[in-house]
Amino acid sequence: MNDVIKLLTSHRSVRKFEARELPEGLLETLIKAGQAAATSSHIQAYSVIRVKNPSSLEKLVELTGGQPYVASCSEFLVFCADMKRPLEAAARTGEDVVSGMTEQLLVATVDVSLMAQNVVIAAESEGLGICYIGGIRNNPQAVSELLELPKHVYPVFGMCIGYPAHEPDIKPRLPVDAVLKVDSYRDDETQVAAFDSTMHAYYQSRKGGNKDANWSQNLTPLFNQKLRPHMRDFLIEKGFTMK
């Protein structure tokens, strides 16, 4: 493996950070690297909110479900799908524009996700650690009000960035042949069963605890209830009417 692939395969989520600021200009460099990611039709349908106000950070700790590292990391960013900028740019040409299409929601969500992952890779190449914060979507309306997000912009996830104060174990992934399929979709339950055994062994041996669970059991809370049912109405209110 070359150095880039080694970096990618050594990713882990960091939740404890040193009390250090990033060097001057590094964050802007990371964002620029993010902007170099692929973007559908060059729309660049994303905006990133850098949250610096201590009271806002503490409020975000609460809104994301009590995750203290939101406030203790060097930088906390909120990555937003932003269809406002391209819609308004197109309208300024004098053309009638159509908003609220499901494809616009998908494009903006994919764009910001690709951009954010570039930021992650750039950050980790500089010795930084990161943690995605999907809990931003626990209370998206309150987050939007706090960050003054306009219509056609919604918060997709947050990201903690900073210097790691611990070294978490690398969490195993499904085997390649479970996700890489040739010519058509084929499923093999034995692959999941084997991965359940792998994850159980990982949880039993990892630093900081001996969790008695496997991959399938960890998925249960995501599928035995309606997860974040507020998101559909929230997105419609934000202008993503999914026509």
Compute the separation of the termini in Å. 45 Å
CATH class of the largest domain: Alpha Beta
Query: How many helical elements?
Result: 11
Order of helices and strands: HHEHHEHHEHEHHHH
CATH topology of the largest domain: NADH Oxidase
Helix content: 40-55%
The low-confidence parts are none
Strands, total number: 4
Q: If you had to describe this structure to a student in words, what would you say it looks like?
A:
By secondary structure, the chain is α+β, with helices and mostly antiparallel strands. The chain has two domains: 3-168, NADH Oxidase (3-Layer(aba) Sandwich); 169-225, no CATH class. Helix content is 44%, strand content 12%. It is built from eleven helices and four strands. It has a four-stranded antiparallel beta sheet, with helices on both faces. The model has no long low-confidence stretch (mean pLDDT 96). This is Nitroreductase. Belongs to the flavin oxidoreductase frp family. InterPro entries: Flavin_OxRdtase_Frp, Nitroreductase, Nitroreductase-like. One of its GO terms (molecular function) is oxidoreductase activity. Keywords: Flavoprotein, FMN, NADP, Oxidoreductase.
